[in-house]
Design brief:
With 269 residues, the protein is an alpha/beta fold. 49% of the residues lie in helices and 12% in strands. The radius of gyration is 18 Å and the shape is globular.
Length: 269
């Protein structure tokens, strides 16, 4: 059996995440707008923290950065990944707040929540997923996404997902991996989509303390704002204690789509 674990934040980390939510709302997903890396004052303004807090987090290894000439510098892509991690460790209350902020910040959205079931075509679901190794899982998941006809360059997507997993494994301790390229790939995607597969047994996929993974989602996004909204929505589904046991009991794609649709409906209750 694949172990499951809850998602929790301490009071101090809640305060940091709350400031991040304000920053995301104020800056409106402007990762691609700035040409230079953040220094401490710019990142402090971006995250609505004090420069002292940013320096302390960096010194303790809690922020991804590097020192240049004795001064901290922070790459935009690494800060984006750090924001992803904040979503991944949030509890239900924080995820609800995060999802609302992301919707308001997405100026291209119609203010409706992202629909996981709409992004997950039946042909992009595989139970069981015929893979026994980390490499074969990545290949099979990209093939699943390509079945939809929305991936215009399968080879590029495969390389991007492989590179992302080598940099930062996406496996969680509850036996799920939320796979995706390091950055959105609008040039090879006709639209955002998801693929989902479940292997017959858990396999090593980079989880902490040797945790095995048996449920895999591949997130294919066309923009940062879409990616983070999908990630927040998926995280809310996973945090539902009923979702994973039900998902692991299903044997066909239609039932999976129905479960996702019903679970999303519960989020609005």
């Amino acid at each position: 059996m694949v172990p499951r674990s809850g998602l929790h934040l301490g009071k101090q980390r809640r305060g940091v995440v709350a400031r991040i939510l304000v920053a995301v709302n104020d800056f409106g997903f402007s990762w691609h707008m700035a040409k230079d890396d953040f220094d401490v004052p710019k990142l402090a303004a971006y995250l609505h923290l004090t420069p002292q807090q940013v320096t302390r987090l960096a010194d303790r290894g809690k922020l991804p950065g590097r020192k240049v000439g004795g001064q901290w510098r922070f790459a935009q892509a690494d800060i984006h990944h750090w924001l992803e991690q904040k979503i991944g460790v949030s509890d239900e209350e924080q995820l609800v707040e995060m999802e609302g902020v992301l919707e308001r910040a997405d100026r291209t959205a119609d203010r409706e929540p992202v629909s996981i079931s709409d992004l997950l075509p039946l042909e992009a679901i595989s139970i069981p997923l015929p893979a026994r190794t980390r490499g074969s899982v990545i290949q099979k998941m990209v093939e699943l996404a390509s079945r939809t006809g929305y991936v215009m360059d399968k080879a590029r997507m495969l390389e991007a997902v492989r590179t992302r997993e080598e940099l930062h494994p996406t496996a969680l301790d509850n036996g799920i991996a939320l796979m995706h390229p390091r950055r959105p790939m609008p040039s090879i995607l006709a639209r955002p989509l998801l693929a989902m597969g479940r292997t017959p047994q858990g396999i090593p996929f980079g989880g902490h303390a040797g945790a095995l993974t048996d449920v895999f989602f591949l997130i294919c996004s066309t923009a940062d704002r879409v990616h983070l909204r999908v990630l927040a929505r998926l995280s809310r589904l996973i945090a539902d204690p009923r979702f994973l046991p039900e998902l692991r009991s299903l044997t066909d794609a239609v039932a999976v789509r129905r479960l996702v649709r019903d679970a999303e409906a519960r989020l609005s209750e």
